[in-house]
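In this supplementary section we document a worked example of the pipeline. Step one takes a protein sequence of length 353 as its only input; no multiple sequence alignment statistics are reported here. Step two produces a three-dimensional model, which step three serialises into structure tokens for compact storage. The input and output of this example are shown verbatim.
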Amino acid sequence: MTDKTTLLTELNDRSREVFRRVVEGYLETGDPVGSRTLTRSMSERLSAATIRNVMQDLEYLGLLNSPHISAGRIPTQLGLRMFVDGILEISEPAASDRAAIEATMGEGGADVGSLLDRVGAALSGVTHGASLVLTPKHEAPIRHIEFVSLSAERALVVLVFGDGQVENRVFTPPAGQTPSSMREAANFLNAIAEGRTLSELRTQIGREIAARRMELDKLAADLVESGLAQWEDRGEPYERLIVRGRANLLGQEGDLEQVRSLFDDLERKRDIAEFLDLAEAGDGVRIFIGSENKLFSLTGSSLVVSPYMNAERKIIGAVGVIGPTRLNYGRIVPIVDYTAQLVGRMLSGQGKR
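The serialised model returned by step three reads:
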């Protein structure tokens, strides 16, 4: 089967222009583009009948589709992918878009969570889509750990990091916990935690429990294991997913059930974390169109995503925008790319250039 790159090179100039103008017209208006519309914009004078013949050829190749009999054409998912990969021209983000994103960086304190929350809101506002920000886990060395009983079925674990940050998270402890077992668990962790990051501590816990089982009550050992497992989200490498702009998707799609389905997918954090793995497979911004993005059951959506890095050039998170496949890719791609670079510089302490 001919791949999309070969398919694009095999189109003659006339077919390429018809294809490009159909896609651009659809991305701009969301409506099928008809042959009579194209007669007014083509670089060479062509009859509507000639353009219809070219459109039929493009439809046969799987690049265009006719949603209704005698209507104009819209691009297929393959057509959009071919347009994005081979025809789309990407420029620098507009000064107003850059200013809107940059304005969020200087607000409030230095808390990373607050910063990324503001970035998500700004990205949603600028692009008029739903924004995604996948935040990194806090990996500073730990200074102190405490367990607090809230009820028979709820407990709080408090972590104080060496850089002064404090994080709290509620979790479900093993049954039968007592104030004594909680103190014992905290004492055990504090004896081995100092100077270690959370991920390093988890590696050490198993060895320490095995070696010191006689010193540590089984109930306290269970609390140590379950509490720290909750903190690590059972192996997930990312702290949380920030989603902003649900109303924007409702406004663009107009189908409440489709948007509900999309956000059901978004709430599966383990699946969403995969988009960072996908982003790592290529350089810079990645674009996932419709069903080629396995993270969404909603095939009418596209995801534009870019990872951001820390000072050691290690990928620690990602920012992205979700919208209908009829996204203004030429505008969205540079905004996402710029935002990811700016977040990376801020988290690396370099600020704005």
